[in-house]
Amino acid sequence: MRIKKKIIAQNCLKQLTLNSIILILICCSFFMIDRSFAAEAFLKKDILFEINENIILQENEIASNIFSLNGQIEVNGIVEGSVFSIGKPVYIKGLVEENVIVLAGDIVLLENSSVRGNAIAINGDVLQSYGSMVWGGIKEVKIIPDLSKFPLFKNVNKFSWHPFYYLELPILSLVFQFITKLFLAIFFVLLMPNKIMYYARSVQERPWKNLFLGIIVLFSMPILIIFLGLTILGIPLIPILILLSLFIGYLGGLAIKYALGDILLNKINIKNKSPILIMFIGLLILELFMITPILRIILPVFYFLGLGTIINNLFFSKERE
């Protein structure tokens, strides 16, 4: 009788152990299925970088970092790193694991948004909705005063670049912009003709080296700016660095225009070429690229090339003009 009870108890124990193992396997399988569905639910993206284009991160998307130059950023999903923007606002609806840094734009933290690092607006504002959270600090650095808040300078930016805006004459506005750019280009050509010609010659002689260097410099700039933004002493250096890079980029753009004008005039065998004529032709070529949707894709290449040309000749080239 005792032997039967012992056998029955052993069978019950084996059955219970078997059922427990089956139950554990079922739970593990459900857990793995749930993890796989969760992985598929979020679309993983690497670094998002745009120039003159808006960036929208959807709710089911994850990005490592986001960088934008003159383009609005909208974060609905998750950013594992930082968000950096120049010239346009950043709207946060999701989660940013590190910092949000904006130059000449606002940071708008919408309801239920979260930033686990710092929210830094340089010459901009940080606007928070109810329910939003910033785990680090909120910093608003005012370097250049906002003239539009003064009655005398109201709409000064819009009118200065689009004086025919209120007359709804976009063609005249484009002509005005072209004339403004031309006067600025001629001013720099007359101010530093030897340097412009030297940089333009470098564009033609070492295009690939300059292009590669420009890409490296431009993609390393946001990392350096974010690093400076993490320190109190580094924050005042950010606008100086950005203004310096913008000036170098503009100088590189002048070199590109001069090189394009010189190449075209050489192709049509124009011998008596004045620097003003060369710059006018080069600017006209780039403006045609800008208003043509297909050719506009090439403009970032010109920017990289010009930026790399100036950096190469200032810091790496042994030759001097």
Offer a few descriptive terms.
321 residues; 8 helices; 17% strand; single chain; alpha/beta; six-stranded parallel sheet
TL;DR of this structure?
This protein is of the alpha/beta class.
Detail the topology: elements first, then pairings.
Blueprint: H1 2-41, E1 43-45, E2 48-51, E3 55-57, E4 61-63, E5 66-69, E6 73-75, E7 78-79, E8 83-86, E9 90-92, E10 95-96, E11 100-103, E12 107-109, E13 114-115, E14 119-122, E15 126-128, E16 133-134, E17 138-141, H2 156-161, H3 170-191, H4 193-205, H5 207-229, H6 237-267, H7 275-291, H8 299-316
Parallel strand pairs: 1-4, 2-5, 3-6, 4-7, 5-8, 6-9, 7-10, 8-11, 9-12, 10-13, 11-14, 12-15, 13-16, 14-17
Helix pairs in contact: 3-7, 4-6, 5-8, 6-7, 6-8
3D structure, described in words:
There is one protein chain. The strands form 3 sheets. This protein has a 6-stranded parallel β-sheet. The protein has a 6-stranded parallel β-sheet with strand order 2-5-8-11-14-17, with helices on one face. The chain has a 5-stranded parallel β-sheet with strand order 3-6-9-12-15, with no helix packed on it. It has helices at 2-41, 156-161, 170-191, 193-205, 207-229, 237-267, 275-291, 299-316, and strands at 43-45, 48-51, 55-57, 61-63, 66-69, 73-75, 78-79, 83-86, 90-92, 95-96, 100-103, 107-109, 114-115, 119-122, 126-128, 133-134, 138-141. Helix 4 (193-205) crosses helix 6. The protein contains 8 helices and 17 strands. It is an alpha/beta fold and 321 residues long. The radius of gyration is 29 Å and the shape is elongated.
